[in-house]
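User: As part of a screening pipeline, I want to sanity-check one entry by hand. Below is the sequence and the SMILES for fe (ii) ion. Please return the complex as structure tokens so I can compare it with the automated output.
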Amino acid sequence: MTLFGQDLLLRRDRSGTIVSDDADWVVESRLGLVWVRRLCHEGTGIPSLIEDEAGTPGFPMIACSEIEVEADYDQTVLGLVDPAHVPMVHTAWWWRSSPRRRVKTKDYVPTPFGFTATAADAFASAPAYELVGQDRKVTIEFRLPSTRIERVQGGRLQLLNITTVTPIAPGRVMLRNVIYSSVRPLRWLYPALSLLGRAFLEQDAAILRRLDSHASLHQPLLFVGEPDQPSAWYFQCKMALARAVGGTDAFVNPVRATRLKWRT
Ligand SMILES: [Fe+2]
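Assistant: Here is the complex for your manual check:
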């Protein structure tokens, strides 16, 4: 695999654990995925990996897709937190039932190394959520460096939907989406659901390809109003983490509990 433009060889040791012989890298297996990070000063606060959720151990993976795209890393991560992104980019009928705009309200709270949003409205916009049941609860966590964790809890099933952005090389990223479900037979839909996930990521990639990454590096970003607050928090969290990793202070989360409203 390649990270930050550097080739990294992973192998299984005698016990079957996936390891790297390069001491500069830390390798961990979690949720059936391999997570790699550069070794850094311990004790400064390193974002933790996603644990098996309480009550969700051993959920089978029901979809997995990835797409490599030439794009600016930060611009790609903003797609994970920007609320304007969803209605403008993901326009499939099963995700967006109506093109009509409506007001949406979400409560944000700080969570370790990021923030979590819960819809304060009575509705969820995606027809796909109807499968989960009426009494569903959906939370969306963003966790540094670049992970979006959507948890859907309904009467009929629970879902764990993870999207990540991996920096492969300067100006080149890998977008990945993995979904786990409490309903084991859903794993038989793995090929079809993975294709849907791939279509979703392709919509992200199509927008990213239209952005001028070079220009975005040299022009100041403009954040306007409540819809852009999560994007501003991303950069503030990232700076806070850089300070923590570069120094001896712990990560101080700049996010404050806030209710945000926008038309979507
Ligand atoms: Fe997206």
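Points to compare against the pipeline: The first helix runs from residue 73 to 81. The first strand starts at residue 2 and ends at 3.
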